[in-house]
Design a protein that fits this description.
Layout (H helix, E strand, L loop, with lengths): L4 E5 L15 E5 L9 E4 L1 H16 L19 H24 L7 H15 L31 E5 L6 H7 L1 H11 L2 E4 L6 H9 L5 E4 L4 H8 L1 E8 L7 E8 L14 E4 L5 H15 L8 E4 L3 H9 L5 E5 H7 L12 E10 L3 E5 L4 H13 L6 H6 L6 E4 L2 H4 L1 H10 L7
Parallel strand pairs: 1-2, 4-5, 4-6, 9-10, 9-11
Antiparallel strand pairs: 1-3, 6-13, 7-13, 7-14, 8-11, 8-12
Amino acid sequence: MDSISVHLSRNPLSRFSSPQPTTGDIFIASSFDPRIGPVKMRIGVVAQFFFLCWSMSATNEPPQNQTPPAPVAPAKGSSWKFTIALIVLLMVGAGGWYAYVSSTAMPTPPDELQGLKTYITNLAKTQKLADGFTDENGDLVADPPKDPAKFLKVDEISFSLVGGEKPETAQGEWQDFMDALAKGTGKKVKYLTEANSVQDQVRLLGEGKLHVTAFNTGQVSTAVNTAGFVPMFCPADGNGNFAYQMEILVPAGSSVQKPEDLKGKNIGLVALSSNSGGKAPLVIFKDKFGMLPGRDYRYTFTGEHERAIKDVAIGRYDAVCVASDILTRTLGPGEKQVKPEAVRSIYKSESFPPLCFGVPYNLPPELATKVKQIFTEFSFVGNSVGRVYQTRGQVKFAPVDYKTDWKLIREVDDSLTKLLDSK
């Protein structure tokens, strides 16, 4: 008999390429995670032995309508018990192999690279101000409308942090700033809970439903060009300095010493919407080290910087790419923190600006002036905002110049649009 093939597949309906079943193939499937493709395990001799035992157990059935043989001493065991025991052993073996496969990184699935191509295509469409915006002063930000009727009518100010943040948590952390906005503008201020993602946030800003908000570093340019976002302030230290770097981390005991050593390895990225956790690493790996995703390394999205740091500390990835300021507050002796000695940094990029607060281009000028004044005068010391930033050394807001401060980010975006041209 031919050897039996056992296919372990995390998703039997996957679009990923997988071998077609042939005679004698057995499929064991789970829907846990589609990132790991099918794995084929040959168990020829064992399977043949299992089939032989099953066949023998079938022949041990007493024949029908025949005179029973003379009584003999009972056997110490029976073939059906042996068969069941063998089935159990095979199931345990298959389970152990599946556990091994689950912990072993597989190549980046084809549809993930397709997703990256789609993102790059869409990103290329957002690299300049959209039609309808003007920029007469050349600061790369949309000018206020010349027609007074096009300014927003704001009875209540809508505020939000970066889209996707838990609204209840973010509102509690920023309540003191929201109170300052209400006091300084004389208007009610509410936290806009509908901004469940960055895409929602950009849409709500463009629709005039979001009036004061913050975008993460990598999404500022998209918000500027497509929704008329006007960057104004970043959290800063006492001297008004604001910056962070992208760092590549590996497990402390890893043999990897430099980015080039990550060829053929599995790298954890945060998200394509993140500069330090997605866009910048992809560009840096290509431009500085000649490495392309799918060809030279595999990648997986973790969704959060903190999770990426915790995962690499336990060896789930060969490396992760994260923001240095988030790394600083994630490392420490606390129960929910990662021990500093568990990870090692092998690369640190140039400095990038952090998340940025601003307003829509069509916010009434007098209201925009009041908001700007509140940002300028607000201190993080002794309030809810300070409790968030106290471990980062940031104590106030500092004004930004989008044209200058986001120059490197725009270069990253431009390079990213050409990332796969050489594949």
